[in-house]
Design goal:
261 residues; alpha/beta; Rossmann fold; DNA polymerase, domain 1; 2 domains; 9 helices; 6 strands; 10% strand; globular
């Protein structure tokens, strides 16, 4: 593991999120840097189909803490914006003043209570795609999620994915600006030591797509959370990651990153 003091300032703090992470930091040894590329995965709606459970946990939270009935659909526009904005946005719609920290914590508790009875399998195609990336000599693989690690890490592990297989794992705890700001993806690229133009992001929400494109990355959007029409800013829109293969992605990156692409 790279010592967190080797990259100064803000980046040193980000590395703490990946201390759980990778023994793969040298797996691309021998591959020319200009030939390396990366896959970066969001979690909710990409690695695991958590969106319905997230909304239900949040509906319960508003009833429990604020005696306010909200609808699961109210949260849809805030998917991918981070745990805090996810609850604050709906509170604003209903004119409810909330304690954000307490609301996020109760939502997290509700989520895991629901999860005990409804385990979340990996999204279709994601395990095979991660396996292909891990086995490829030229490909780095990372997770970048706006959610906080105390919620997202158990979700990742619940799908059967081992975080140590990833070259970087960055969460909302490691950034100061959430999606649609590109910070989390720029931090991930820096952690990987790779140019943003050679990164493919997998997203399910408009805010995530916007963040990826603002970072100068390619984006594959999956229609697990919103309609395809709301994801048109992505380079590719699919119904399932089973429709995506590593060879096609490699060609897409080569075209995007080339001077004439």
């Amino acid at each position: 593991m790279e010592d967190s003091g080797t990259r100064g300032g803000e980046m040193g703090r980000h590395l703490t999120a990946t201390e759980c992470g990778s023994g793969r930091s040298d797996h691309t040894t021998g591959v020319r840097p200009e030939m390396q590329w990366a896959m970066i995965f969001d979690v909710d709606g990409v690695i695991a189909d958590t969106e319905a459970l997230n909304a239900r946990a949040s509906v319960l939270m508003f009833e429990q803490l604020y005696s306010t009935r909200v609808q699961s659909e109210d949260f849809r526009e805030f998917v991918g914006t981070g745990d805090e904005r996810y609850v604050e946005g709906v509170a604003e719609k209903y004119g409810v003043t909330i304690d954000t920290e307490a609301a996020v914590e109760r939502r997290r508790e509700n989520f895991f209570t629901l999860l005990q009875n409804e385990p979340l399998p990996a999204m279709d195609g994601v395990l095979a795609l991660v396996d292909a990336a891990v086995q490829a000599d030229d490909c780095l693989v990372a997770i970048a999620t706006s959610g906080n690690k105390n919620k997202q890490f158990p979700v990742i592990e619940g799908t059967g994915l081992d975080r140590s297989r990833f070259d970087a794992v960055i969460t909302g705890d490691d950034v100061t600006r959430k999606k649609p700001d590109p910070q989390i993806y720029l931090v991930t690229a820096e952690r990987l030591g790779i140019e943003p133009a050679r990164c493919v992001v997998f997203e399910d929400a408009p805010a995530g797509v916007e963040a990826a494109k603002a970072a100068g990355m390619l984006c594959v959007a999956v229609t697990s959370s919103v309609d395809a029409g709301k994801l048109q800013a992505a380079d590719i829109v699919v119904d399932s990651l089973a429709e995506v293969d590593i060879d096609g992605l490699r060609e897409l990156v080569a075209s995007h990153a080339s001077p004439s692409g």
